[in-house]
Design goal:
- The structure holds three protein chains of three kinds.
- By secondary structure, chain A is mostly helical.
- Helices cover 79% and strands 0% of the residues of chain A.
- The mean pLDDT of chain A is 87.
- Chain C is mostly helical.
- The mean pLDDT of chain C is 91.
- The chains are: A mainly alpha, B alpha/beta, C mainly alpha.
- Chains in contact: A-C, B-C.
Chain lengths: 221, 258, 213
């Protein structure tokens, strides 16, 4: 059986895998980004114990491998009475883990903002949270463009780890089709090409957004 | 190498960048022991001419000779020199740049010994001894183990001069050596250059420092729009030039410094 | 969890370290080779390498490891999981390092190169004495960052049977029926390893800043 036939006959498996990967990627990207904005907001303001703890937790998360964190949620929590199904564990893991990474990117962008920004906003009578969401955050996001792109690609690649806890994503699809015929090349090449395409699309999309931001003078090269 | 040939000879040099002709037929000879200053306004082509001498810029047409030997082109063949041959020819010259261009990962001493050891094959001991002597000559004996980032601009340029001298070059090419320096640091570099001229080194200096050019040069050359407008001894050039354009140029200079 | 389990964990951590370590060293060297080949602009090779870099940077480690593991027999490879693991991780980290080196190559100070040329240095000499020492210092923070990313994706090798720090948690849990302690312990050990790399990166960063004058 040649490669193309193999792919064609099992299109449903690949389609299911691709769909699951995209759902995981899309939902987790959006949610982790929003989580990061909230975390960055919580960090805004004077240094206190809470904020120090949050920063410490962010640092910790960035020193942990994703799979171990996933294991912790999926295999470890039942010990404490919390039993998560595969999808829940997957989403929570992706969202919190990458939320921490996005938050770190925003934190770095915050420290790089000229102090005048916040001062100007305060001078105009903005209340703390309003100032943050309307003035500071958009700039922090614009400045970090390429870093977000990189992190999104990392998120996409981490979805593959979910195949290990038996979620039928794109990698699991390749594995399954391979196991059926013991001809590994076509299914894996197909799946790798799909990951590559998604990455190229995401990068192209971000470049587009970046150019629009530049046009409006929000970002200066 | 021909002992009686001029150290540097430029014949009918032409060069253009992006459609604009920057050098339009330069002819120049520099004899041994001479100090030649090159003056001109920005964009006149003077730096380009200097950089053609050691083939950092490649001429379109014309010939360059260093010590009587053809630069950049194989003798007798007309084919371009290989990188190795170019490197060998360049080792006969030395250049001091406007932005010093020291190698930041090496100490002051190492900057001066690097080329002698690795290009000329001098032993480490010999290179070190020479470097120590040269650094003393430029007034930086106490800075052997310092790194470039800890030095002032004037100190960096003096290290660059020591580095150039370490190659025992036939000619030293200076490309606006003081233009990037704070005014109070210019003097220390000019003092070193003056002592080199007095020692009899062959030097070609592209500069804006008029008083220095007047005091130290054997010959002053004025370039405008890619051509040599005047070549004269300093006294003639600065007080009684034949060229209207030169007098205009000097007039502007005088009013800004009067 | 008993002390013997801790010993098992430490052995597994060692496995993670040496498998990652070999891939890291190979990956730094090969990454430099790839970057230089690309800079040399050799007709077909440079484009092929560009495709390789882009493709591998977009491929999850799990997928890559599984892929190499299942095609190994068809290439006539001995299916030694450790060789496959090192090959997969090296292939992956080389692509990332190639980008880091490439950035250092293309942004290298032209002025220093001119000074080297003017002093009569050949290209080879300039590369060896002037470019590489500085490129190593300026690239080090990025390379060390990539090292910690590699260690963080190393759990993928547990999937092909290597008893690394991740797989060992399964082993211990299979006996004790208590997965939480070994997972926490493994997490702790990973944090120690990666924390060490982060420390290293900060030192590399300050040294790189000094070179920038």
């Amino acid at each position: 059986m040649n490669g193309i036939e193999m792919l064609w006959d099992n299109l449903d498996v690949f389609a299911a895998g691709l769909q699951n990967t995209l759902i995981l990627f899309g939902v987790s990207s959006a949610c982790s980004f929003m989580l990061a904005c909230v975390i960055a907001f919580l960090l805004e303001g004077q240094d206190n114990l809470f904020r120090r703890l949050v920063r410490w937790a962010l640092d910790l998360m960035r020193m942990l491998p994703f799979l171990i964190f996933l294991y912790l949620l999926y295999y470890g929590l039942p010990n404490l009475g919390i039993s998560l199904d595969v999808w829940s564990a997957g989403f929570i893991a992706l969202i919190t883990y990458h939320g921490a990474y996005f938050a770190e990117i925003l934190r770095a962008a915050r420290t790089a903002l000229p102090a005048g920004q916040a001062e100007a906003a305060y001078a105009h009578g903005f209340v703390n949270s309003n100032m943050y969401w309307r003035i500071l955050l958009p700039q922090m996001v614009m400045r970090s463009g390429p870093l977000f792109g990189n992190q999104l690609v990392c998120l996409l690649k981490d979805t593959a780890f979910l195949s290990i806890i038996t979620l039928m994503d794109l990698t699991a699809a390749a594995s399954a089709v391979q196991a059926k015929y013991f001809v590994p090349l076509p299914p894996f090449i197909f799946v790798i090409a799909l990951y590559w395409s998604i990455t190229l699309l995401v990068e192209a999309l971000l470049r587009r957004l970046g150019r629009r931001a530049q046009k409006r003078g929000l970002v200066h090269e | 190498m021909n002992k009686s040939a001029p150290v540097v000879e430029i014949r009918d040099l032409h060069k253009h960048f992006a459609g604009i002709e920057v050098l339009r037929g330069i002819n120049l000879k520099v004899e041994r022991g001479q100090t030649v200053s090159i003056l001109g306004s920005s964009g006149s082509g003077k730096s380009t001419m200097l950089r053609c001498i050691n083939w950092l810029e490649v001429p379109d047409t014309g010939e360059i000779y260093i010590g009587g030997d053809r630069m950049g082109v194989k003798s007798g063949g007309g084919k371009a020199m290989s990188n190795r041959e170019l490197a060998a020819m360049r080792a006969r010259t030395a250049m001091v740049f406007q932005s010093f261009n020291l190698w930041p990962h090496l100490t002051v001493l190492q900057n001066v010994t690097e080329a002698p050891i690795h290009v000329m094959g001098v032993s480490r001991k010999e290179a070190n001894d020479q470097a120590v002597a040269l650094l003393e000559k430029v007034g930086l004996s106490h800075k052997h183990d310092a790194y470039p980032w800890s030095l002032s601009g004037g100190q960096r340029q003096r290290v660059a001069i020591a580095r150039a001298l370490a190659m025992n070059p036939q000619v030293i090419l200076f490309d606006e050596p003081t233009s990037a320096l704070d005014p109070e640091l210019v003097g220390e570099v000019l003092a070193v250059m003056r002592s080199l001229a007095e020692d009899g080194f062959t030097m070609v200096i592209v500069t804006h420092e008029m008083e220095f050019a007047r005091a130290v040069s054997n010959e002053v050359v004025f370039i405008e729009k890619g051509q040599i407008i005047e070549r004269a001894a300093p006294e003639k050039f600065f007080t009684n030039s034949d060229s209207e354009r030169v007098r205009q140029f000097l007039g502007r200079y005088r009013t800004t410094t009067a | 969890m008993q002390s013997s389990d801790w010993i098992t964990l430490v052995y597994a951590a060692w496995t993670t370290l040496w498998v990652s370590g070999i891939s890291i060293v190979l990956g730094i060297i090969l990454g430099l080779v790839v970057a230089m080949l690309r800079a040399a602009k050799i007709p077909v090779l440079s484009q092929a390498l560009a495709v390789y870099v882009s493709l591998i940077r977009a491929t999850p480690m799990v997928t890559l490891v599984l892929f190499l593991f299942v095609i190994a027999p068809s290439i006539g490879w001995e299916v030694d999981a450790r060789v496959v693991a090192i090959a997969a991780m090296t292939l992956n980290t080389t692509a990332f390092n190639a980008e880091i080196w490439r950035s250092a190559l293309t942004s290298f100070s032209r002025e220093q190169l001119e000074a080297a040329k003017a002093a009569g240095m050949t290209t080879g000499l300039t590369l060896r004495r002037i470019m590489l020492p500085q490129m190593l210092t300026t690239s080090l923070p990025g390379l060390v960052n990539e090292m910690s990313l590699l260690v963080k994706s190393s759990p993928a090798i547990a999937m092909i049977g290597i008893v690394d720090l991740t797989r060992v948690t399964n082993r211990i849990a299979a006996v004790t029926y208590d997965p939480l302690p070994p997972i926490l312990a493994a997490g702790l050990l990973y944090i120690v390893i990666i924390g060490g790399l982060v420390r290293f990166q900060r030192i590399a960063d300050s040294r790189a800043k000094r070179l920038a004058m």
